[in-house]
Design goal:
The chain is 40% helix and 16% strand. The chain is built from 15 helices and 14 strands. β10, α10 and β11 form a beta-alpha-beta unit. α1 runs parallel beside α4, α2 (56-70) runs parallel beside α8 (201-213) and α11 (297-307) packs across α12 (322-334). The radius of gyration is 22 Å and the shape is globular. Mean pLDDT is 89; it is low at 1-11 and 29-48.
């Protein structure tokens, strides 16, 4: 139990957070808003073809910074986002630049600050709610599903809820069952939400910008292990006008023998698998989904109609997963093009173990993807036949 004094401190902190949002609503909404005009559209600008390296962490930070600079309605709220500059340093430097009224530290009260954020979105602000891990979003799932996701429909389009819920999703390392779940399928099954899951720095930067600008609630699923990964980015990606359309997948590697769909960290694993498969003469096409809802069914089906085989990869549980939805789409739209059964690679159907050796067995590995692709191409004897 919390002491009476500690409870008073938490309540005072929470009230201060709410007052900050109220102040922001009154001061910002009392003005005429217009997004800072861009110098020119991306389509008319010529960019250098040279590339530089950027971490996913810096890509997210730069996207937040630019969108907050461009639109005074955008603000960030969550645990340790201000003084500590983010549990993973995604919000580094933002408190000093935008002040405590737009970068708001909250107590450990996900239900409370998520509800405040949804209410602020009702009134025209654009909150970004950070969860220290998406597992903690379960404390606030009523606000996310019943308040944010359904309000536009239930109000016949009169209430818009432009809010982003973001933070690390899926398995990290050594954090056990209650901190390792993938929420892509959970939130992807709910109408009214858009669900994005970036892989590269380009994805992180372009998709987060689109999410913040979107008029609907967006679930933005990052990956803790990818934060420190560096990826090449072009001058176009670094431009302040850059964004990636929601609902569009990307072919990371073209191929002709088997299609592999993946998102987040599993895109990297799939690309590694494709390199190994190429040495055995199998040309794998790797599709980075980027968007879980809406799903780019057109690109997935076009790829399957070309390769005639499909392997889906995800960290989440297999039952009712993202891969299951992709399989259903392909069966409905491209069944006659399939030359082999669909292969699904997913996390083990158990809560995440804590022991490192068991943890590795519970999460898909590169060799799992390689074996599945070879089975689809009839390059190995199926396990059931060998038994």
């Amino acid at each position: 139990m919390l002491s009476f004094t500690r409870r008073k401190v938490l309540c005072a902190d929470f009230i201060a957070s709410a007052k900050n949002v109220t102040f922001l609503s009154k001061t910002v909404l009392g003005k005429a808003f217009e997004r800072t005009p861009m110098a020119a559209s991306a389509s008319t600008r010529k960019f250098s073809t040279s590339h530089k390296e950027m971490t996913v962490r810096d890509a997210l930070n730069s996207a937040l910074d630019e969108e907050m600079a461009a639109d005074p309605k955008v603000f960030l709220m969550g645990e340790e986002v201000g003084e500590y500059q983010g549990a993973y340093k995604i919000s580094k430097g933002l408190l000093d630049k935008y002040g405590p009224e737009r970068v708001i530290d909250t107590p450990i009260t996900e239900a409370g600050f998520t509800g405040i954020g949804v209410g602020a979105a009702y009134y025209g602000l654009r909150p970004i709610i950070e969860f220290m891990t998406f597992n903690f979003s379960m404390q606030a799932i009523d606000h996310i599903i019943n308040s944010a996701a359904k309000s536009n429909y239930m109000s016949a389009g009169q209430i818009s809820v432009p809010i982003v819920f973001r933070g690390p999703n899926g398995a990290a390392a050594g954090v056990a069952a209650q901190h390792s779940q993938c929420y892509a399928a959970w939130y992807g099954s709910c109408p009214g939400l858009k669900v994005l899951s970036p892989y590269s720095s380009e994805d992180a930067r372009g998709l987060l910008k689109s999410a913040i600008r979107d008029p609907d609630p967006v679930i933005f699923l990052e990956n803790e292990i990818l934060y420190g990964e560096s990826f090449p980015v072009s001058a176009e990606v670094l431009d302040s006008s850059f964004s990636i359309p929601i609902g569009k997948a990307k072919i990371e590697r073209e191929g002709k023998d088997v299609s592999i769909t993946a998102f987040s960290k599993m895109v990297g694993f799939s690309l590694q698998a494709a390199e190994i498969l190429a040495k055995d003469g199998i040309s794998a096409e790797v599709i980075n989904l980027r968007s879980i809802r809406p799903l780019d069914r057109a690109m997935i089906n076009a790829s399957v109609r070309k390769t005639n085989r499909l392997v889906t990869v995800e960290e989440g549980f297999p039952q009712h997963g993202v891969g299951a939805e992709i399989c259903a789409s392909v069966i409905e739209e491209s069944f006659e093009y399939l030359d082999a059964p669909v292969e699904r690679i997913a996390g083990a159907d158990v809560p995440m173990p804590y022991a490192p050796n068991l943890e590795r067995l519970a999460v898909p590995q590169v060799e799992d993807i390689v074996r599945a692709a070879k089975r689809a191409c009839y390059r190995v004897v199926p396990n059931s036949a060998a038994a």
